[in-house]
Amino acid sequence: MNIGIALGIPFISKVKKILARDTFNRADSPVLGKADTGQTWEQLYGVYEVKTKQVYAPGSSASIAGLNVGKPNYRIISDIYSTSNTTLGLAFRIVDKDTFYACRVYQMNLEIYKFNGATTLLGNFNGVGYGLKTLKIEVVGSTFKCYINNQLVLTVNDSDLANANKVGFRGAGVESYAKNIIVEEI
Predict the structure, then answer these.
(1) When comparing pLDDT for 98 and 127, which is higher?
(2) Helix H or strand E encompassing 45
(3) Domains in the chain, CATH or no CATH each
(4) What share of residues in the chain are helix, strand, coil (percent, to 5)?
(5) Single pTM value for the model
(6) Whether residue 13 has pLDDT greater than 60
(7) Partners of 129 in beta bridges
């Protein structure tokens, strides 16, 4: 929290606390290693690498990697490159490799799924397009808001997994890239 005086008027502003950040600005590596904020990436299933200063999923199978951010409510922001078959997205409220939510770009859609023994589509938005996109998810209580390039496109509600504190990436089946990840406290 910042307290100050501007134009003779006292003010209080809340500074967004960064819970996790990773720019992947490091040498190529067969593992994701440590985030810029010090947390160690946990490879829960499949393969993620650092390649050309990006998160790289070779696409041979489903993959999930996560960081513990210590809180269940947050905003996640990442630049994700999507192609016609990309299935890379952001995973949140991760419990383990089988239990989590994922917001992903797939073909021309933005989809939110819940994985917990079964796979449940919670919401879908058509017309996302291909190329580099900034994907943002706000996770507060049972409400998940998904943004593409800072435009709200999908809101869903689900009350499961309310206390899980890990966030990360989830992809399946095709080669895919992400440039960074930032997790902010809400």
Answers:
(1) 98
(2) strand 42-45
(3) 18-185 (2.60.120.560)
(4) 0, 60, 40
(5) 0.87
(6) no
(7) none
Helices (H), the chain: none
What amino acid occupies position 119?
T
- Cα–Cα distance list, 53 to 79, 117, 143, 146 (Å): 13, 34, 32, 25
Span 46-52, mean pLDDT? 90
Q: In whole angstroms, give the CA distance from residue 102 to residue 42.
A: 16
Q: Residues 96-122: pLDDT tens digits? A: 999 999 998 877 788 999 999 899 999
Round to whole Å and give the CA distance between 18 and 131: 27
> Tokens 């008027």 identify what position?
9
How many degrees, rounded to 5, is the angle at CA 184 between CA 183 and CA 186?
A: 135
